[in-house]
């Protein structure tokens, strides 16, 4: 199940299937997408219950798929990852323990990936004759580079938090990833929304620069008093 807890500035989304290492079915993917899309909180903290972040797709469910339903399942995962990436809220993945396959792909869609020292990561799909199809083949090389992405995806090997940090797969290592979400939430919500949109903007450099200038002007006008106070 997907469990939601709202505080003043943070929506906490918990993948709560510890008996399956928080593996996801179609229903879970839909619930996660809805939890991300239907909130006005500036920050979302996404984590897993128990000793895993997310094991990816529920293999019991995958085993029952045919070609058409497998394609639909992949599209469901992509919709969920896109909701995380494209939404207004800054999404912080708190990764404690096991992250595999689709779990890594969901984390890749988040704005920040923060892990505990116990976190481990792998894309083991090739060992089963499949691969991650929730947008990971696009996001992984964008985040860690082509060479590291091919190494992870073709080998299926497990990397620990230290190596994941070295290659840029995660942003930070800390005993309590939620503190990073709380740190981010202390900033101005409108600035968080705009910075996320601009950094993730894949338009041409010229178009992006124009949008940066426009939104910078909007924020300066909105926060003129705060800016002035900093000069005193």
From TrEMBL:
CDD domains: crotonase-like (cd06558)
Pfam annotation, one family: ECH_1
Single Gene Ontology MF annotation: catalytic activity
PROSITE patterns (UniProt xref): ENOYL_COA_HYDRATASE
Family: Belongs to the enoyl-CoA hydratase/isomerase family.
UniProt name for this protein: Enoyl-CoA hydratase/isomerase family protein
Organism field: Haladaptatus pallidirubidus
């Amino acid at each position: 199940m997907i469990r939601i807890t709202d505080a003043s500035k943070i929506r906490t989304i918990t993948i709560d299937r510890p008996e399956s290492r928080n593996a996801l079915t179609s229903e879970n993917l839909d619930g996660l997408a809805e939890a991300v899309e239907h909130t006005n909180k500036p920050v979302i903290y996404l984590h897993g219950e128990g000793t895993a972040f997310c094991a990816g797709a529920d293999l019991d469910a995958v085993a029952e798929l045919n070609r058409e339903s497998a394609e639909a399942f992949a599209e469901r995962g992509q919709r969920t990852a896109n909701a995380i990436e494209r939404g207004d809220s800054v999404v912080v993945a708190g990764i404690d323990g096991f992250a595999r396959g689709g779990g890594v792909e969901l984390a890749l869609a988040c704005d920040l990936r923060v892990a505990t020292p116990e976190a481990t990561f792998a894309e083991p799909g090739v060992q089963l004759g499949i691969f991650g199809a929730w947008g990971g083949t696009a996001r992984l090389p964008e985040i860690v580079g082509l060479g590291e992405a091919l190494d992870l995806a073709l080998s299926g090997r497990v990397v620990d938090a230290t190596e994941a940090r070295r290659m840029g797969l995660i942003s930070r290592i800390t005993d309590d990833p939620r503190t990073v979400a709380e740190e981010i939430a202390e900033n101005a919500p409108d600035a968080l929304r705009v910075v996320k949109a601009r950094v993730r903007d894949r338009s041409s450099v010229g178009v992006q620069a124009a949008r940066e200038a426009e939104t910078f002007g909007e924020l300066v006008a909105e926060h003129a008093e705060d800016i002035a106070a900093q000069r005193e």
